[in-house]
Amino acid sequence: MPLQRVAIFQLGMLLMVVPLQFIITKMSSSTESQRVDQLTSVMEAVYGFSNKYLSWESWQRWSSTFYQNGIAQLFQSENNDNNINNDEENAYSRTKENNEFFATSTEPRSPRPSHVHFRVGQVIKHKIWGYRGVIIGWDEVAVAPEYWMSINHPPDKPHWRTMPNYSILVDTRDRLAPQITYVPQENIEMAPKTQIFHPEVDHYFEKFDGIRYLPRPSVRRVYPYD
Predict the structure, then answer these.
(1) d(CA 121, CA 200)
(2) Given pLDDT bands bounded at 50, 70 and 90, which one contains residue 100?
């Protein structure tokens, strides 16, 4: 049970203590009929609280709200307190603004430039944030909205814009909510023989061969030499 729901449960129990104590003290001097009515009221209150805050349906609603709120806060700067993950880190919350951004272009990458060091299907680890992931696409240079570039490719890192950038499915063991990030080549390194957990893996890859993921035909058409 997440911390917020634990807190709600504890608060609800505390709020119910006072009326319960009052009812218990009154029951000894009440008639049987009154005691039945009082107990019924208590049970209805407990049931209502449980149904509103502790049921499976309420958990689904809470999860949905939590996820949507998390997505809404994805584009955060590296300069925030505690080095909150920037989006290099969560590019795809806004990719649909332009289907050419963040390595989403379906134009075949042919020929393959020699300075693109990593390939689609390879498993990597982020050098700064430490998460694992699998590459699902790359651009020879960064292709992203200017507002995104200004936040995530800071002035002291101008070369991030002109080096290859990679779209990566992030392992959900490292990031609980499924994420796709867009990362400069300088910030990643190989992490072979590692399987990645992400709900979109099967969309891009046929299988994991023990070292890397094998792209599906639709992906191979875009990256024929990877």
Answers:
(1) 13
(2) confident
How far apart, in Å, are the Cα atoms of 98 and each of 49, 93, 103, 105, 145?
A: 45, 12, 11, 9, 9
DSSP string, 54-120: TSHHHHHHHHHHHHHHHHHT----TTSGGG---TTS-GGGSGGG-TTTTTT--S---SPPTT----T
What pLDDT, on a 0 to 100 scale, did the predictor assign at position 205?
Answer: 98
207 burial via Cβ count (<10 Å: 0-12, 13-18, 19+): exposed
Is residue 148 within 8 Å of 175, Cβ to Cβ?
Answer: no
pTM metric for this prediction: 0.61
pLDDT, tens only, 68-91: 434 333 333 333 333 334 445 444
Query: Amino acid identity of 155?
Result: P
Residue 196 near residue 168, CB atoms below 8 Å: no
Structure tokens given for 77: 């700067």
Q: For 109-119, what is each residue's pLDDT tens digit?
A: 999 999 999 99
Supply the DSSP symbol for 183: E
**Gap between the Cα atoms of 43 and 50, Å rounded:** 10
Residue type, 46: V
**Cβ atoms < 10 Å from Cβ of 71:** 15
Alpha-carbon gap, residue 23 to 37, rounded angstroms: 11
Q: Which two tokens stand for residue 166?
A: 């990679």
Return the bridge partners of 133, or none.
124, 170
d(CA 135, CA 122): 6
